[in-house]
Structure formats: C-alpha cells, structure tokens
Amino acid sequence: MKALYKAGAHAGFELVDRPEPETGAGDVKIRVMTTGICGTDLHIQSWDAWAQGIINAP
After folding, report:
1. Residue of 10, 23, 34, 43 marked catalytic
2. Is 40 within a domain?
3. What is the per-residue pLDDT across 1-56, written as a single tens digit (0 to 9) for each?
4. Is residue 9 part of a domain?
5. What angle do CA 22, 26, 5 make, to 5 degrees?
6. Are 2 and 17 within 8 A, CB to CB?
7. Which of 1, 31, 48, 58 has CA atoms 20 to 30 A from the CA of 22?
C-alpha cells in the first residue's frame, strides 16, 4: 500500500510502499476510498517553526 512518510526533521514527505497491515483478534481493516490533507499536514510538510516545536520526526 502507498503511504506518506516523514523521514526526518526537514521539509517534505516521501511517498513509499508499505506492507498491508495485519489484523488481530477483535481488529477490523477498512478500505480507504479517498483521503485528504489538512492544514496541520501542510505545516509538517513545510517543516515550519510550528512543526519544529511540536512534531518529533523520526
């Protein structure tokens, strides 16, 4: 599956392939048909002062 990944404390995301999640007992897996990006995501993507003070990037 495709995922946006924040590799470190810098501007940008990476579009990467990740394995499908495994479900356990009592879990459900849903199929996402659409998604969106919110204002917080844009702060994290640009790695502005707000994001640097709040986000603990890998």
Report:
1. 43
2. yes
3. 999 999 999 999 999 999 998 999 999 999 999 999 999 999 999 999 999 999 99
4. yes
5. 35
6. yes
7. 58
Whether the pTM exceeds 0.90: the reply is no
Q: Is there a catalytic annotation at residue 34? A: no
- Name residue, tokens 């479900």: 23
Tokens of 58: 């890998």
Range of the domain at 6: 1-17+35-58
18 torsion bin: left (phi>0), alpha (psi -120 to 50), beta (else):
beta
Q: What is the domain count for the chain?
A: 1
Catalytic residue among 10, 23, 35, 40: 40
23 assigned to some structural domain: no
Q: Specify which residues 14 forms β-bridges with.
A: 5
40 catalytic? Reply is yes
Of 40, 34, 1, the closest CA to residue 17 belongs to: 1
